User: Fold this.
Amino acid sequence: MKTMSKNLAQLEIGQSAIINSFTDKHMALKLLEMGCTPGEVVQLDRIAPMGDPIAIRVSGYLLSLRKAEASTILVSLLAANI
Amino acid sequence: MEANQSFVNFSEKTSLKVALVGNPNSGKSTLFNALTGLNQKTGNFPGVTVDKKSGFAKLNRTENQEPRDKNQESRTKNEGPRAEISDKSQLSTNRTITVEFTDLPGTYSLYPKSLDERVAFEVLCDPNNENHPDVTIIVADASNLKRNLFLVSQIIDLKMPVILVLNMMDLVEKEGDVIDSIRLSEKLGVKVVGLSARNKEGIETLKQALLQPLPVPQYDFIDIKKLAPELIEKIAAIVKVNSDFAAFQIINNFSEINYFDKHPDKKEKIAAILNASTVDSNKLQSQETVERYKVINRIVEECITHKSAIKTESFSHKLDSILTHRIWGYSIFLVILFFIFQTIFFLAAYPMQWIETLFVSFSNIATQTLPPGEFTNLLVNGILAGLSGIIVFVPQIALLFAFIAILEDTGYMARVSFIMDKLMRKFGLNGRSVIPLVSGVACAIPAIMSTRTMSSWKERMITIMVTPLMSCSARLPVYTLLIALVVPEGKSLGIFNYQGLILMALYLIGFIAAMMAALVMKWILRSREKSYFIMELPVYRSPQWRTVGLTIYDKVKSFLFDAGKIILAVSVILWFLSSHAPGNRLEVIEKKYDSPEMTKMYNEADLQAKISSEQLEASYAGILGKSIEPAIAPLGFDWKIGIALVTSFAAREVFVGTMATIYSVGNADNTQTLREKMQAEVNTVTGKPQFSVAVGFSLMIFYAFAMQCMSTLAIVYRETKHWKWPVIQFLFMSALAYISSFVVYQLLK
Assistant:
């Protein structure tokens, strides 16, 4: 399966990706606890009207986070989205 | 697995401590309300300012009961909560257990990052904590089980008796999903009860489950020891812990644990061990989390059957498209705010009128039936006037909290944060500041307390500092009175009520001032700490009237009994100050008017008014008001307003009570309402009405900005743990109020 590396903030609405790793270890702890674990599939659900924050679908629920926070999550775009 | 299980049985105890813990939005508070009803009280967790909600319920065993006669049955019902049943022969058949439920703050994990999380952490991880429960009920949102199981897995590893409640089973069924709760119970090694707290389904089953033997989790959810084997052993050798996970928590959160302050010897030893080791607790916790989710994923796969792999676009998703839309989202939010203010102003006016009328007739009855004298004077002008001034605001408070409860309960408040975050960030605030700020419209005290969920120190501090600038409900009575005095009734463009528009403008001014103050503080406060905005957007649900009702009940109760006490006390003190004077000054005034010339010059009513007015001026209150008059004269305030400014430092709404007392004492005619009395007041120098447009607006602006609330200052001290903050807050708000009122009065006069 062909994949493309990005960070979570770079997804487009409706795109899904798999979480690979984190670039900020303190932020990672909070994100892990909220169910953003490596291997988990995330989908960008929507972007707030002013362009930030964003809402992602992960572990079966809707999580909102700022773009700066989302950019610490490195993901691989699912093949279907490329 | 089952072979290893041990059980605890509480059925022989007469009282039981149960803690409710769960993720935010798991329906934990709804379940707490369903379990305890109105039997709730609010206190504090020791050492921290987090509210402790506890409630009591009496549970009766319904199983294994022999047939009883009616006498016994009625006896059980009549027994007080702490009654011991002395007759041992009845123990197995006819028992009442008093259960104290404690609602712990919502948390996603047992890591103490925020104050709320710290409370849950301390209560659950420390068996010596005075609130440590006999049984822990973990409330999980069954429709969002994966993330909820994370906290569940941590608590299981503490090896305490637990019941896992799968809440919102109605949602799961609606989705067509099936949760195999028997299998889940086997996998987790704990009792599992599925219910729907909203629909009050399964509550009885849960209560009965508390009375039956409970399995104590025996096996580890994950092998925590392998993450730090040596350290865990060393810690366990110093502190008696029930589980490896408890030791693991000590390693990672050592500095956060109060327990060690009382045991300095142990503290020293552990500090030495931790200093000597090279482990990175951040890494340890990451590993723990990843391990837990691995196991959780397996369990979820085994225990949940989804109806279909692809979820259709849900109702929440569609609603979000509108409510977070760039145009519709903000328009709807503004319309909602507008609707709330207009409703509070108009709808509340009717019951307020009824209350006022009722108290006027009480005063009349008292004056007519009781002999004139000191006691009647105290009752009518002190106590009844004060009570009326308190109770009249209940309708407004109830309506406002009804709206806030509905917005919270439906999940809409989270969307407000979502669409407002970027804007708020510019002012050094956070999307989550919107909720404290909007709640600040009701009362700064709960609003400031609600900032606890904010993990960024700087954003939290700014939110705390500026929230009291939002127009709280205590200002509403002041605004209402002053608007009615100086703003004409009538409508602009046929729909917008003038008085309503001015009220809205005052709220807007408060909001703008709060934003500006935040902007200034953003530059002043320095912090290297990063701010978070990681929060759940819960699915939309219809509001629960029970929750709304309980919120209203709670707020009205705390207003009547907390603020009300101060207001009544101040009213009575004020009555004393305004009806008593040093020496025999009052008698001198009476004598002065008791002459044939005076009685010829004035009619009876005018004479009485003259006497009262002069007596008030001579009273202690008059002396107090006059002494500050030079300072407030540039704002258009006379000494009567001066008295009210001083007394309303106890609470802003005291202004109205003070005015009521001053004017009912100063004027003999008791049946006139306060508003009419104030309108009739004439400025002795100009001969025009005292409450001119300039004075009215100057006062409104003063009340909009001034920090006239001891309770808020006290809460700010408690929240910031430093006197510096309430002092700064008091000074900057007072200066802002003085300067603004000065400008307004000088421009309008």
